[in-house]
Design a protein that fits this description.
The complex is a heterodimer. Chain A is an alpha+beta fold. Chain A is 41% helix and 18% strand. Chain B starts with a strand and ends with a strand. Chain B is an alpha+beta fold. Classes of the chains: A alpha+beta, B alpha+beta. At the A-B interface, helix 5, strand 1, helix 7, helix 8 and strand 4 of A face helix 2, helix 11, helix 13, helix 14 and strand 18 of B.
């Protein structure tokens, strides 16, 4: 037995020496044939183990197997080493080839975010026509013919007496007329103002309008819902401020500000909030009882809040964009950033 | 409105810091900023809300607000008309022709004034602070009161008023020479003040030159009236004449202002010049009545979501000038006559809410029924299509709803009826788009100047003309009139080789096919574009290189093709453009809701490629259809592999390679079985189409 063990030890030393002399893949193959191949020295040795007396089989077999596994591993490592020698390496610092991806318009991205936030709070997403009857855009919203609010909203008129809706509120009466409270509705969409275009004014932009009608709805609910929604939309913790405002279709009416998103400590020279620390973001309020009556909702039983804001403005805040006209420019240098 | 802090402080004690005052007003009344002060002391610039113009386009109105906000008393100036009142009749009669346009008018004969006396320095300083040039005591006092009370008044030299002092709409062609020296020729319907029926003043806008106060004036007729806001606004626009007075009338005054304004002018003239009112006439046929609003404290709290004690509610309303009495749990609130905006309980709640402070309203999330909200099907489908196009390398753009003129004309679209805008600001706003393509072409070509290859798409509405309908509310089918479309352009700048153009076409076509597969449409086919008799839309698509996209037997859902070279030439586009234009609204109605799986083949299929030399008249579609027909049921699928047109091929022939998948759900097919069928298919194609296997 000791003989056999000694032979195994000798074989190991011999094979190691042989392997250390190997310089080429051909020599390595030679080495494999001599020691590891079916007719090689080690398998041959292993085959004799079964003829040993039973008490010797285990220790000798174990030693021979250890030798074989060790040499096989060394052989594989040597092969990998030798093969690599002939391989031209990749320059891994060359930029990878990216699949060509397109881009969604930033207003689409922000609109989807707004939709998701309000969907999460159970608001149905609906829309109305952009070419609208004056009664939906004004009359049913408690904006009578000679009301000052019509001064505020200069309007594109069509030759047939219709108009391009000046706000998504125009869809309010349409969507409320088919529903019985309680309901929660969000109306995102395109609106139009008759004004000359500059960096902060556009003839076309997009708004989102929210409505919630139920028993016992109050301004506190409005503050709660907008607080939750707005910080999810601008991806930042924000404070909310209500200021008195006036829209004929709500009473009380408020302007909703959020705390300025600029992370700098002082807002004194901030272009976004103009030094006030607050950024105007939405108009809102409690739906005027006349508007509820116009769509046959019992205004003695139900109350609701409504809010409306500019998607473009939120997108401008998010991307720190200063020229609203870029949204409509089709400029690939702009679109490909989103 | 411009506010001098020094002037404001004469009525109510205010915080030292102008910014604090501005913030109080912003958060509780209306947006107010600190203005630039140039020698005239600190200024505020208040953006008074339209519904508050009546009471707050005045120093007294703003002082009342600040008094209520700061809980401080306001020292009101002397403005009691009764005190200055005289029962004597003036030597002229009032003649108000249309009391709807002038519901209240007051004229007072005032003696003991001197037309050339200056006003005191403090008054001049305050007027200068708000940008008004001091002139003489009489004029300065009326201007001062315009700012202080918010009521424009006008003083005539008494010599200019003869037997009647009238108010009436002008007759066409009448002239008035106003104080600024301009002679206005009036059209019909401008409100004027008259003396013996001769116009002497444009009501509510500007007095006449001749009838005005002169240096030798000693007796004046002070007039104050309420003039219809719309009439004044329209007259002001028509005459292109805006004044402090016209601004105030256009934003709405009340009958209460008339009295307060006249009283305040008389009090000041009395105080500063010792003038005496000796006679007065008034036309006020339907005196305004105060209306009480009944509201409970709980109603107010329920709207605001905020507890406010009943005592605090009463204090606030009183400070704002309301009379308040309590009947049981109900507040009976009588707003002052100058607050016509207070009419319903919600208005009262707003007053209480903003004076208490809107910041005190807590943020609370409503408890609501757990109705699930889901994205509507069409919006969900649009998102999927947009994302798919993005993943395929297309970039979304948004363009105006107006059809850009140059592209519209280049496409000949102007011959088609559009909805038209009455008041476009520029020529690119004349028509509402009936197709996304004109604006997309505009964007694409502008974009192509920055990048050699552009894939651009838009999802948007087009606006179909049609008679205006007055369907009952809620039943209008507006979606049919503003259908959604999905269009895109692949734009390659410069000279584009023919092979490249063909590849671009197939890329765009493939993109369209993939979109339609996503929509679950199976029965999609591409038809030659037929030249239409009107020759309108079709001119866009290059014949022979464009296809109409159809679904099943009937539905036409759009086009895909190369934009005709003539169109590109007209638009001076140097490059090639392949476009698609899909009727998304129609596609979404065809979208299959149900998707049922097909069992995968349990046995391995056998693939065989088939390369054919094909006459040009034989289309790939025809071959594939024939293979399906002849090879059924063992042909599982036929795929297009390659098409080659080269000069070494025989004249009029193309080489087409197809891949046929053979298989059976029941067993593994034998080689012989497949070979036999394959040969049969080839033979049948040879016979039917005259093709040769290569």
């Amino acid at each position: 037995m000791t003989d056999l063990l000694q032979r195994i030890a000798d074989l190991q030393a011999e094979a190691r020496t042989a392997l250390s002399r190997v310089q080429t893949l051909a020599e390595l193959e030679q080495f494999r044939n001599v020691y590891l191949a079916r007719r090689g020295k080690i398998p041959t040795l292993l085959r004799t183990v079964k003829d040993l007396p039973s008490d010797e089989r285990r220790p000798v077999g174990a030693a021979a197997n250890t030798l074989r596994r060790g040499l096989e591993a060394e052989y594989l490592a040597a092969r990998a080493r030798l093969r690599a020698r002939g391989v031209r390496p990749f320059d891994v610092t060359v930029p990878g080839r990216k699949p060509v991806l397109g881009h969604l318009h930033p207003l689409t991205i922000v609109r989807r975010d707004i939709e998701e936030v309000f969907l999460g709070m159970g608001f149905e997403i609906l829309d109305g026509p952009e070419v609208e009857e004056p009664r939906y855009n004004f009359d049913l919203l408690n904006v009578p013919l000679e009301h000052p609010a019509r001064d505020l909203m200069d309007t594109f008129w069509l030759t047939d007496g219709r108009l391009l809706r000046t706000h998504t509120s125009a869809a309010q009466a349409r969507v409320m007329a088919n529903r019985t409270p309680p309901f929660r509705i969000l109306i995102p969409g395109r609106v139009f103002r008759h004004e000359a275009t500059d960096a902060t004014h556009e003839s076309t932009f997009s708004q989102f309008e929210g409505l919630y009608v139920d028993e016992g709805v109050s301004l506190a609910d409005l503050k709660g819902v907008l607080g939750e929604a707005l910080q999810r939309i601008v991806h930042q913790r924000v404070d909310i401020r209500f200021r008195p405002s006036y829209f004929p279709f709500v009473e009380p009416g408020v302007e909703v500000d959020i705390s300025c998103l600029s992370r700098r400590g002082s807002h004194r020279d901030c272009r976004v909030c103009k030094g006030t620390g607050w950024v105007e973001i939405l108009g809102a309020g409690m739906i005027h009882p006349v508007v509820l009556q116009n769509v046959a909702v019992d205004s003695t039983r139900y109350r609701g809040f409504a809010f409306g804001g500019s998607i473009d403005r939120l997108a401008m805040l998010r991307y720190r964009l200063t020229d609203i006209r870029l949204f409509w420019s089709g400029d690939p240098n702009f679109l490909e950033q989103f | 409105m411009r506010l001098s802090l020094e002037w404001l402080r004469s009525y109510v004690r205010l915080p030292e810091d102008a910014a604090t005052v501005a913030q109080l007003l912003t958060e509780q009344s209306f947006e107010t900023a600190v203005g630039a002060s140039e020698g005239s002391g600190e200024l505020l610039e208040a953006d008074v809300l339209p519904n508050r113009a009546a009471d707050c386009l005045s120093y007294l109105g703003v002082a009342r607000e600040l008094g209520a906000i700061l809980r401080r008393t306001v020292s009101w100036p002397d403005m009691n008309l009764e005190k200055s009142l005289t029962r004597a009749q003036p030597p002229f009669a009032l003649r108000i022709q249309n009391t709807a346009l002038c519901p209240r008018f007051l004229a007072v004969l005032v003696e003991g004034v001197r037309g050339n006396a200056p006003s005191p320095a403090w008054m001049q300083r305050r007027l200068q602070a708000v940008g008004v040039r001091p002139q003489n005591l009489i004029v300065d006092v009326t201007n001062y009161v315009l700012w202080e009370v918010g009521q424009p008044t006008h003083a005539f030299d008494a010599r200019a008023i003869r037997r009647t002092l009238g108010v009436r709409p002008s007759r066409s062609g009448e002239t008035v020479r106003t104080l600024d020296g301009v002679t206005h020729t009036l059209s019909k319907g401008v409100l004027v003040l008259t003396s013996d029926d001769q116009p002497i003043d444009v009501a509510g806008i500007m007095g006449g030159e001749e009838s005005s106060v002169h240096a030798d004036t000693t007796v004046i007729v002070l007039t104050a009236g309420l003039f219809d806001r719309v009439a004044v606004r329209k007259a002001s626009q028509a005459l292109n004449l805006r004044t402090d007075a016209s601004d105030r009338f256009a934003k709405g005054r009340t009958a209460a202002h008339v009295e307060a304004g006249a009283a305040r002018v008389l009090a000041l003239l009395q105080e500063l010049a010792g003038a005496r009112a000796t006679a007065m006439a008034e036309a006020y046929p339907q005196p305004m009545k105060a209306r009480a609003i009944r509201v409970t404290g709980t109603e107010v709290e329920a709207l605001l979501g905020l507890k406010v004690s009943s005592a605090r509610q009463r204090t606030i309303l009183t400070a704002l000038g309301c009379r308040v009495s309590v009947v049981g749990k109900t507040l009976r609130v009588t707003p002052p006559l100058f607050r016509a905006d207070l009419a319903i309980p919600e208005d009262i709640a707003e007053e209480i809410g903003r004076i208490v402070g809107l910041e005190k309203i807590p943020a609370r999330l409503p408890r609501a029924p757990l109705n699930p909200a889901t994205l509507p099907d069409d919006l969900r489908a649009i998102r999927i299509l947009e994302d798919q196009l993005k993943a395929a390398g297309w970039t979304e753009t948004l363009s105006y709803s107006f059809s850009i003129e140059e592209e519209t004309l280049a496409l000949g679209f102007e011959k088609v009826e559009h909805l038209k805008i009455v008041n476009p600001i520029n020529r690119d706003q004349i028509r509402l788009r009936i197709s996304l393509l004109p604006n997309l072409l505009h964007h694409a070509w502008a974009g192509a100047k920055k990048t050699p290859l552009l894939r651009l798409f838009e999802v948007g509405r087009v606006y179909l003309p049609g008679p205006r309908t007055r369907a009952p509310r809620g039943t209008e089918n507006w979606k049919a009139r503003e259908p959604l479309r999905l269009a895109g352009l692949l734009v390659r700048r410069g000279d584009v080789a023919s092979d490249r153009q063909r590849e671009d076409f197939y890329e765009v076509k493939g993109t369209v096919e993939q979109l339609l597969i996503t929509c679950g449409l199976s029965d999609v086919w591409f038809d030659d574009v037929e030249p239409s008799p009107e020759g309108t839309f079709i001119s866009l698509w290059q014949p022979g290189r464009s296809a109409e996209v159809k679904v099943g037997q009937k539905a036409e859902v759009g086009f895909v093709g190369t934009v005709a070279p003539e169109v590109l030439e007209r638009l001076r586009i140097r490059g090639s453009v392949v476009a698609f234009d899909l009727d998304l609204a129609e596609i979404l109605t065809l979208e299959k809701a149900e998707r049922v799986y097909q069992a995968p083949l349990p046995y391995p299929p056998v693939l065989r490629d088939l390369s054919l030399l094909v006459p040009e008249t034989v289309l790939v579609d025809m071959l594939m259809e024939a293979i399906d027909r002849v090879g059924a049921p063992l042909v599982q699928d036929v795929d297009f592999v390659d098409l080659y047109e080269g000069s070494e091929l025989p004249e009029g022939r193309r080489s087409i390679t197809l891949r046929i998948t053979y298989g059976s759900p029941e067993r593994t097919l034998t080689d012989k079985e497949v070979n036999d069928l394959h040969r049969r298919i080839v033979a049948s194609l040879e016979e039917e189409f005259g093709v040769e296997e290569r």
